[in-house]
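User: Structure tokens for this complex, please. No commentary.
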Amino acid sequence: MVHKKRKRRIAQKAGLPPGTLVATAGPGHPEHAAPLAVAITRILYDAAGYDERGVASIEEALPAPDEKRTLWINVDGVHDIAILERVGKQFGLHPLLLEDIAHTEQRPKLESYGDHLFMDLNVFHLHEGSDEIHGEQISLVLGANWLLSFNEGPQPWERPLRERLKADKAHCRQHGPDYLAYTIIDAVVDGYYLVLERLGDRIEDLEEELMASPTPQTLHAVYLLKREVIHLRKSVWPLRELIGGLQRERDLVRESTGIYLRDLYDHAVQVLDTVETYRDILAGMLDIYLSSVSNKMNEVMKVLTVIATIFIPLTFVAGIYGMNFEFMPELKWRYGYLFFWGIIVAVGLGMLAYFRRKKWF
Amino acid sequence: MVHKKRKRRIAQKAGLPPGTLVATAGPGHPEHAAPLAVAITRILYDAAGYDERGVASIEEALPAPDEKRTLWINVDGVHDIAILERVGKQFGLHPLLLEDIAHTEQRPKLESYGDHLFMDLNVFHLHEGSDEIHGEQISLVLGANWLLSFNEGPQPWERPLRERLKADKAHCRQHGPDYLAYTIIDAVVDGYYLVLERLGDRIEDLEEELMASPTPQTLHAVYLLKREVIHLRKSVWPLRELIGGLQRERDLVRESTGIYLRDLYDHAVQVLDTVETYRDILAGMLDIYLSSVSNKMNEVMKVLTVIATIFIPLTFVAGIYGMNFEFMPELKWRYGYLFFWGIIVAVGLGMLAYFRRKKWF
Amino acid sequence: MVHKKRKRRIAQKAGLPPGTLVATAGPGHPEHAAPLAVAITRILYDAAGYDERGVASIEEALPAPDEKRTLWINVDGVHDIAILERVGKQFGLHPLLLEDIAHTEQRPKLESYGDHLFMDLNVFHLHEGSDEIHGEQISLVLGANWLLSFNEGPQPWERPLRERLKADKAHCRQHGPDYLAYTIIDAVVDGYYLVLERLGDRIEDLEEELMASPTPQTLHAVYLLKREVIHLRKSVWPLRELIGGLQRERDLVRESTGIYLRDLYDHAVQVLDTVETYRDILAGMLDIYLSSVSNKMNEVMKVLTVIATIFIPLTFVAGIYGMNFEFMPELKWRYGYLFFWGIIVAVGLGMLAYFRRKKWF
Amino acid sequence: MVHKKRKRRIAQKAGLPPGTLVATAGPGHPEHAAPLAVAITRILYDAAGYDERGVASIEEALPAPDEKRTLWINVDGVHDIAILERVGKQFGLHPLLLEDIAHTEQRPKLESYGDHLFMDLNVFHLHEGSDEIHGEQISLVLGANWLLSFNEGPQPWERPLRERLKADKAHCRQHGPDYLAYTIIDAVVDGYYLVLERLGDRIEDLEEELMASPTPQTLHAVYLLKREVIHLRKSVWPLRELIGGLQRERDLVRESTGIYLRDLYDHAVQVLDTVETYRDILAGMLDIYLSSVSNKMNEVMKVLTVIATIFIPLTFVAGIYGMNFEFMPELKWRYGYLFFWGIIVAVGLGMLAYFRRKKWF
Amino acid sequence: MVHKKRKRRIAQKAGLPPGTLVATAGPGHPEHAAPLAVAITRILYDAAGYDERGVASIEEALPAPDEKRTLWINVDGVHDIAILERVGKQFGLHPLLLEDIAHTEQRPKLESYGDHLFMDLNVFHLHEGSDEIHGEQISLVLGANWLLSFNEGPQPWERPLRERLKADKAHCRQHGPDYLAYTIIDAVVDGYYLVLERLGDRIEDLEEELMASPTPQTLHAVYLLKREVIHLRKSVWPLRELIGGLQRERDLVRESTGIYLRDLYDHAVQVLDTVETYRDILAGMLDIYLSSVSNKMNEVMKVLTVIATIFIPLTFVAGIYGMNFEFMPELKWRYGYLFFWGIIVAVGLGMLAYFRRKKWF
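Assistant:
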């Protein structure tokens, strides 16, 4: 459960001075059994060319001072505090910004630091073969002609994005780092669609199960799904605000990118709409479950009532003729036994007719 | 279920660069068994005249550069990417705008591109003989003296609208393409009224069923109806915003059209009111259902209790006189059997009086 | 049900060009069996005098062009399209405005047309001897020194209002048509109080019924009342906005009338408060009903359980001594039968004590 | 129930011209058995002196025209229309303002009439020995150097306030009538705390009752308490707005008083917070009640089921050996009866073990 | 329960003039058995040096008039009215501000008094070994180069904060008292994380209990937890506003501190998010509980129904052959008894098959 982890991490930090770097992910963290090496990639590009290089240290990644090309540094792995501090020093980043990068349980947000913008994003991955949704944090720092991106680990969108950048001289490389930031956020939002699709499938499965044969397990699944939707919603709301805010950052975000951001904003609203719809649907499913349980109990009660109300009076009649009174004229009748059966059949059929009229079976 | 489709389509696109045209409707799409030809109609009109022509390609539809008349190009079928791209090139449309036209699962929205406005609308159709509501997308691009409209397929309002345009020289043809856009949105909103009327009828039917003889099927129908209302609501909210925004677009929308839009806005609010009312009513119906099930179970329980509490003690009494004790004086009494019946009738009538006083039957 | 009617009427109009006049009330309409004559009254007044006249046609009602007195034309009956069109022509009213007058199922609204204001109001009447609330529409058009009022039929406030106007030279006739419009809206809001009083009485009756002896009919009544409150609320919200908007219309509404409108606004807020309170109370009543049904079932169950758990074991004991084993020593005992009754009484009293301690009866 | 009274009073007025004075409290009103004399007190004060006088008529209360001291006229009893009209004449009050004073069922509000402010407040009293909350209205009119206060009857805060004013030359008498108005509103808000404290105690009592032994009476009490909280809330919301608005009335409210109003505003927010919390808690209590009823029914069912499922099969076995078949070998067995008891004990113990494992008892 | 205490304290004060100092904590208060001494600490610091001193009276704590260093006076214990009054006199604090410090049941708030800011905060502590959350109030007064802090008792963050201040010449001591205020609020917010972590653990425990074996005690725990969350929420909402307001106080809060406050604001939003999520989850748990109770009752009913519907008819059959009719041919049959067993086994197995098909066991 992502949500509990978040709380715990920040609680660890309670008492330390603000701006203290404490890694909440990475080696030494119980979640990652083996330490993960930090991978730094440096890309320089403009309409004319594209230069990609894996570097060992952040200092290697720095371009010449008179570099005109757009610089993109991508860091996979935020658990190495030393690297973050060196990045901070090179690009003049505020300690609180670095702290936000290192603490991977942040709420999505956009913050302006004058000549650069800081963005925190939550990305969600689906584990193959399981229904668990795994959340990671991506941090972006956008400067005038550079972009820094920090991921908890390698992201699925990294490779396709680089290849598009390499290939698409006419379009992608024409734009600056703001467009690059847009494409990354776009990939993140696309990831939400995949998660929503999976959730939607599970909701439909549960719906069918609910209608056909609900069990307490179905309800439990609805409950867990509802929690995941609540959790997802908590990430999407601020994401929408982030994109809206980015559109208004006219200094670092060019007009041409603004149109793309507007489109992205619509996508975020659509994701939110879907999340809210799922919430409504899941809330409705609980009611369906409860009424289905009531119905089943009703059915059980009817069976009991039909059987008991037919046979209890009949047993009473049989009990009468099992009595040992000396004077019981019926017992001596020639057709006493047949007479008994007549009563039994009449009462039984009468009862059945009554229940049939009541539509009990 | 429209809502699931939407999610799935956009998920297909995840990973592609923004602005990539991927048709989500039309031939090759599993929903349309046979490919549907794209029909392009070009209309030129002013107060003086009206000229309508079906054209084979978008280039044919383009008027002379010095054309003063209002141009309306209507495209039925958005699955042919090539046509959209040629339209985009001719009218200088942004790739994202074309992408929104091609992806037919958009949220209604209004976007300004400087010298033209883009509008996405959801229109709902009722299938004859079924309760299913089918959603389609209509996209409008409004320029200074031209209007482009893109539909997933032929729309019921197309023919009457053209005929009115042809006939009504005094009114419709006096106004520009903004008024034409208004009439199309008006037709869309009128479509909502038809859908709401159908939903209202079904709600009334379900209400009567609930009061008379609710079954789990009734509840299921309420649940499905509720989902449709949730879905409809998701379209009407942004539609209202769209019309409100259109009123403020003073460059491309004339003052005279503004009054009509204000009226249309009121209609959209009324639709929304009705949708919200339906939601409230449907939510209340679930409670009625649950309490009706409780009532029924109560009734079943009462029958069981009345029968059981009368006959169980009587059976006990009969059991006593079926015992084989050697010394049981009542068995030898002359009127022992009558005495037994006296007890039985007294206990039985006492019980009945008790239940009658409790108003159990 | 007013709410369904509204939807249906507008659906009728779907497909017609905007501004087409279609009467939704009056002769030919199924609701009115016999055609109702349209009654036009023309009143001219100022501080100096008062002149009231019933006129046959709208043209007769028009004053001399240099008329300085305030003109009030009241039209009872909006089903005669021709009259509306002639009024529209004389006073320069927009076709959409006339359409709103003719369609009597509008949402309350205020619209400015430059030199005149248009207002749509819903008024509610109580039918004597029935619980049904009947809604009608009143439309007002306020000009610089004239007021037009259109009602579906004669209104109860018409006569007292005219007499006050005739009598109260010092106050009412000093003010212009804006004050006249205020007095009409005030009469409408007073009508809401009467409706709320009736609803409040019914809520109190239902409350007592719920506490004393709830039946499914009580619940049905709560449900229907809830629907009426939902419907009423839909009219009061926009009415409040209308009055608020009127206060800001400084061109046609004088300062002196503004104070009266502020007071009226408070009344509308109070009506809304009461409607919301009723909604809360009705929602709470459903819960009371459900818990009352649960309590009753609990009581039924207790009776069944007490009787069954006492007599089922006793019957078993009686069954034992009805067995025909050859060797059953108790049967031969001299006081076997008394011994049996001893067991029965002990078990029975023990059970009773147990249930008494459990507070089951 | 205050809330019903309010509605009824205003409904009485429906049809009268606006500004008509109709007393809704006082003599002749069914609530007050005996007519209550109107008590008028006139106080003139400044830092130098304090002069208090009970006066018989409002004209006596008027100060000399060149009076510099602050004037406070307190009127206990608003049912004497003549007095209100004379006050209105002397201080130039609008008829609507007087109407609001006379109608004691108003919503709290603040209205500016240029050179004076009008305030309506609801004050709540607790009746000793009963749980009923009784609401009264206080109206304040604040001028440049005078304050009028109108109460339905004598208020508990009157005497302490006057004595403080008399004694506290340094502080209270330094300030003008705006500070005096503040102290009165402060006393009103303090009254809310007392009411909330009582409600809080009752909520705690009900909580304990719910946990220990809930009865339908408990639920009824929760329901009534909820209604009172809904009613209280309706008064506190506008009170908060009133105080907020007063802070912005910079003409008649001095800067020095502003700080006190800010503090008072916080108190009103705190009252509102508590009211909202009570609402949440009461809503939660209903759920607890329902689940407690369910639990009890569950317990009853378990007892029935345990007894019935043990003894019904045993009775069947006893029934078998009570049959009269000629050939039933067990009946002849020497230890047949013991064998029977063996079966009975085995089945009975098996059942008990089963239920114990199910944790049914 | 903190919430009740608050109400009671303020109610005590009802009737006293505003600004009257009444201690709501400290000696004489039932909560503190033994009086607690008030501890005053005075700290003077700048980048150059740090001087800390415990002082006996507030007058000792005052610096020389030409003091340039930042002054921090921390007072642990707010029950000594005399000390507060002397502080107020020395720093020119308004009586209402002092009143807010002394009344420890305030809502968090920020108030500007021109040259100084007043802040009220709620801090929460967890008692070791118990689940109770204990709330205390911290008040801060921020001047141009001084900060006063008032706590109900010694706070856990005091010592680490002083040591950091002493050690961290480069960073903490560079900033003014606004940064100091920030670090204190940061410590308070960190305290919320600890409380949330504990609540989160308890929620998870309850969740497991609910799924495994819910009892009425579980529900009671959910109810109490929900109340604590409601209470916590009431403190966090105004805290968020407080931090937001502090960011806008540009006179006393330096630009450099603004960035830290923005970060703190994000933390407060995150706390709020978590509180809201807990509320949603706890609300969902009640539904789970109710449905779990329903399920259990269903299960009980099934056992009863299976046993009763199998054995009641069989008992009837046994009853038949226990009758004493003279003419009952079956009794004389050679294999009558076997025939009886045949019927019994057939009926019993048929019933079992039926219930198995119904999935009742």
